[in-house]
């Protein structure tokens, strides 16, 4: 059974993330969405909140599960018996960072492959950071995130 890890902060999940996930779910028998617990990134939402936002949006994928993780991604991949890491590339600007991460991961654990997936071009300019910025100033983010996420963003910025 081919298994991949789709890691990320997912703060919050966007339609671009879900598009990459759909592509991964078609390529692999099993996909684990790994939500990073990385306080250094100062996420808007806690890991628990991010997991809660993700769950209803993953229900349509029979071969996808979700779990939090921390520590080195390649160690997590080996613990999960995963064959590969899936990473989305939206634009050329993503490539340098992702390429360096993939090379470091290969250096640490050569048996874990990294596969880059391009989302649909309509999501090429969407990022969680940009979505949060738009939501913070009251903009409509409904075209970029699922309804439950848009609602969570509204609540977060009314605090």
Question: Would you write up a description of this structure?
Answer:
The protein has helices at residues 15-27, 47-58, 73-79, 92-108, 128-136, 147-156; strands spanning 3-8, 30-36, 64-69, 84-88, 113-117. It is of the alpha/beta class and 159 residues long. It has a single domain, classed as HUPs (Rossmann fold). β1 (3-8), α1 (15-27) and β2 form a beta-alpha-beta unit. It is globular and about 45 Å long. The mean pLDDT is 93.
Q: What is the total domain count?
A: 1
Largest sheet: 5 strands, parallel
Order of neighbouring strands in the sheet with most strands: 3-2-1-4-5
Give the averaged pLDDT, no decimals.
93
Bin the helical content: 40-55%
Structural class: alpha/beta
What is the name of the CATH topology? Rossmann fold
- Terminus-to-terminus distance: 45 Å
Order of helices and strands: EHEHEHEHEHH
Q: Over all CA atoms, what is the radius of gyration?
A: 15 Å
- The CATH superfamily appears as HUPs
Stretches where pLDDT is under 50 for at least 5 consecutive residues are none
Give the CA-based shape: globular
The portion of residues forming beta strands comes to 15-25%
């Amino acid at each position: 059974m081919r298994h991949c890890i789709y890691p990320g902060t997912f703060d919050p999940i966007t339609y671009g993330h879900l598009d990459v996930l759909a592509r991964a779910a078609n390529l692999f028998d099993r996909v684990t969405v790994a939500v990073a617990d990385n306080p250094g990134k100062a996420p808007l939402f806690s890991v628990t909140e991010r997991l809660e936002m993700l769950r209803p949006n993953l229900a349509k994928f029979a071969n996808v599960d979700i779990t939090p993780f921390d520590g080195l991604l390649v160690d997590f991949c080996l613990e999960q018996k995963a064959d590969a890491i899936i990473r989305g590339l939206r634009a050329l600007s993503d490539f340098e960072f992702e390429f360096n991460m993939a090379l470091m991961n290969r250096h640490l654990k050569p048996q874990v492959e990294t596969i880059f997936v391009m989302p649909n071009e309509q999501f090429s300019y969407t990022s969680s950071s940009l979505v949060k910025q738009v939501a913070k100033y009251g903009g409509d983010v409904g075209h970029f995130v699922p309804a439950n996420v848009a609602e969570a963003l509204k609540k977060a910025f009314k605090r």
